[in-house]
TrEMBL record:
Positions of region (Disordered): 1-20
GO annotations of cellular component type: membrane
Composition bias type Basic and acidic residues, residue spans: 1-10
Name of protein: Amino acid transporter transmembrane domain-containing protein
Top-level taxon of the source organism: Eukaryota
Originating species: Thyridium curvatum
Membrane topology: Multi-pass membrane protein
Length: 484
């Protein structure tokens, strides 16, 4: 396919909504022909069956998950006001990257994942590098979700079993559920997971008896209990009422600040997965509707949860934040959050597994037909991804450190730089207007800033993990639900 063909406007018929399976089967059993999946028939899974509401759920679940439980710690690093400002800036920048995903997909219908975009930008090297980074990134994120699930199981059972056992249980559950074949069928997992994470962040605050009326009306489960107690569970005991040591502005070290920025980027780093999500939409033209709804909702949730929890806990906030409310409410919060934590692991294992699966079978009849090769490849992909994620979860058992390391090493590289390059690829030959020059400058900034954050953030995250007082041994049986 030459460049002129790739850059042409899409044929409306080629991006028209894919019919659902109900009542629309024609005699030759063909549902439609897709530029990525080929001929889709009733003899196999329908990979073009996600509506915009389902797309919204999938987008929100790639964003709202582990990140929201680390947001109060980010605010503790920057202080309340700078924390909100940096969060909003990251939200705006990543929303632009997300928008580029939709426009690039409509221009280049053969693109399934960011590796296909990498091939267009940088040839075979770009294809291999972006493909490897995407697979490793979401596999690592799934691993951190398994770790978060083990924290929840420890909290609920009062450390009723070895932590290594809980991680293994999470891995088995992730493998079973991530083997659901299509994103259309995964959307219920996304809705359940996103709602549980949000509610678990909300419950704490609604139980507060001594908080202001405004605070009562704005929070989410972790936000109910942090005001219920006299002091955060991590705070030292002492006479008299607890007074939060929250700061409106803080003065973090470079290492702490860049690690916090990496965590923020991680919370919005569903961007590379949006290629795969839009590829399974019935009507990709509705992508922006789902995108803007997702980003606004996610940003509001982050600000509300992080602000309320940090206001009541100050520097004694736990990571994950559900540990900040004391033993009883910690169990309540984790009980509600558990499906969300597990849902993150499931969806974020499904994505790299599907990536590997499509890459292996693309162009063959086995991709969309239920043959033996189809099933062996699919289960082999989900098992391999789950196994690597399990090894990551067990080998780096520090929640906040793992989140920031993933954010620095992969998230910024897959969420910022490539999209500046994509805009330049599509628009370099456009007329040299003032807007064109501004966009070129913007893309250059995105590429340079993303590169700096990747290098500096990785360094800061590694230093934080090495220096962490809460570090435990790999495959440890120690309780990981009491880290602060």
């Amino acid at each position: 396919m030459n460049d002129s063909t790739m850059k042409s406007d899409p044929d409306p018929e080629s991006i028209a909504p894919a019919p659902s399976n109900v009542g629309e089967v024609i005699q030759d059993k063909t549902i439609q022909h897709d530029a990525v999946f080929g001929t889709i028939t009733t003899k196999g899974p329908n990979y073009r069956n996600v509506g915009w509401i389902g797309t919204l759920a999938l987008m929100m679940k790639t964003q709202i998950g582990l990140g929201v439980l680390s947001m109060p710690v980010v605010f503790d690093t920057f202080g309340l006001i700078p924390g909100i400002i940096v969060l909003v800036v990251v939200a705006a920048v990543t929303t632009w990257s997300d928008y580029i995903v939709g426009t690039f997909k409509l221009r280049h219908r053969h693109v399934y994942g960011i590796d296909d975009a990498g091939r267009m930008l940088f040839g075979k090297i770009g294809y291999e590098v972006f493909g490897a980074m995407y697979t490793l990134y979401f596999t690592f994120v799934s691993g951190s979700a398994m770790l978060g699930t083990s924290v929840a199981l420890n909290a609920l059972s009062t450390h009723g079993a070895c932590t290594a056992v809980f991680v293994a249980v999470a891995a088995i559950a992730v493998f079973c559920l991530s083997s659901i074949q299509t994103l259309g069928r995964m959307s219920w997992v996304a809705w359940l997971g996103a709602c549980c994470i949000i509610v678990s962040g909300k419950l704490h605050r609604n139980l507060v008896g001594n908080a202001s009326n405004l605070a009562r009306s704005t929070v989410f489960v972790i936000t109910i209990a942090v005001g219920l107690q006299d002091r955060p569970s991590a705070a030292p005991p002492g006479p008299g009422p607890w007074k939060s040591d929250y700061k409106l502005a803080n003065n973090p070290s470079f290492t702490d600040a860049i690690s916090a920025v990496s965590t923020l980027i991680f919370t919005y780093a569903g961007t590379p997965a949006f290629f795969n999500i839009v590829a399974e939409m019935r009507d990709p033209r509705l992508y922006n509707r789902a995108l803007y709804t997702c980003q606004i909702t996610v940003t509001v949730v982050y600000i509300v949860v992080a602000t309320v929890v940090y206001y009541y806990c100050g520097s004694y906030v736990s990571s994950p934040a559900l540990g900040s409310a004391g033993p009883l409410m910690k169990k309540v919060g984790y009980g509600i959050a558990l499906p969300g934590l597990l849902g993150s692991g499931v969806l974020l294992a499904h994505l790299p597994a599907k990536h590997v699966f499509v890459r292996v079978l693309r162009g063959s009849k086995h991709l969309t037909t239920n043959t033996a090769i189809h099933w062996v490849t699919w289960f082999g992909s989900t098992f391999s991804v789950t196994l690597v994620a399990y090894l990551v979860a067990s080998g780096i058992p520090v929640f906040s450190g793992l989140v920031s390391l993933i954010g620095a090493l992969f998230a910024s590289s897959l969420t910022l730089q490539p999209y500046g390059c994509m805009w330049l690829y599509d628009h370099w030959q456009d007329s040299r207007t003032a807007r064109w020059h501004c966009m070129v400058a913007w893309c250059a900034f995105i590429i340079l800033a993303g590169t700096f954050i990747t290098v500096a953030g990785t360094y800061g995250s590694i230093v934080a993990i090495v220096q962490s007082p809460d570090r435990s041994r790999p495959w440890s049986c120690a309780d990981n639900s009491n880290s602060t």
